[in-house]
Amino acid sequence: MSWALALLGACILALAVIAVAHAALPGEIGPGQAQAAPMVEEIADEASPEPEGPPFLAFGEPVPGRKIISPWGLRKLPWEDHGRLHEGVDIAADAGAKVLAVADGVVVGRGVAGGYGTYIEVKHPGGLTSFYAHLGSVERKMRVGRAVAAGTPIARIGNGGTSTGPHLHLEIRNGGDPINPILFLNRRFATADDLPVEMAETVSPRVRLATVSTIPESKRALMAAKIAKAKAKNRRGRLPPDLRLAQLALQRSAD
């Protein structure tokens, strides 16, 4: 009788072990169990990361759709004897066309300054500023201290200062020093470290001879004297190609 009871106990123990093992097999989830839910959430998190935040700084165009007619770099104007740094880019546009802020910032200056004529300056993150010159006018509400968003109209195209026709002169400055604007326009930068400041400081040694359609009134006497001097040096009174173009521009300016 005792041996029968022992045998019955052994059977019950074996059945219990099998039941526990069966419950532990993968893929077998009993009613009310939810062990798989955390795994699904974890995979979903890995497959769908949180979207990145806004860029540190994003630049647009000051006069959308208009081309740069005079780039950054060493340039020699017709009335000059030597090349000098053109500290920005010139963008041709019709007088009165809107000038837009190229990036988010704060107005830090506006007024009239010598050869620049009417100007406005906007400070941006990262120690950069954008400077807009030869303007016809600055929007009245754009006072110093006003915050502006990229794409906000801040001024109008003009022909002020030492200018050869209606256009915008745009500079990007780093700590007050001009750098190449072309490396910033229509670009987005995730962090301050992504700003191409060092590259933008590079100046090619090549001097570009600029051609103009008109001569500014303040430079016409100087231009006439330079043409006369060049004719005197040549027995036949001939001018080099660049001065012949400048002579035509001078004649158009006087008309």
TrEMBL record:
It is an enzyme of class 3 (hydrolase). Its EC number is 3.4.24.-. One of its GO terms (molecular function) is hydrolase activity. Residues 1-23 form the signal peptide. Keywords: Hydrolase, Signal. It comes from the Bacteria. Residues 85-181 form the M23ase beta-sheet core domain. PANTHER family: MUREIN HYDROLASE ACTIVATOR ENVC, PEPTIDASE-RELATED. This is M23 family metallopeptidase. It comes from Phenylobacterium conjunctum.
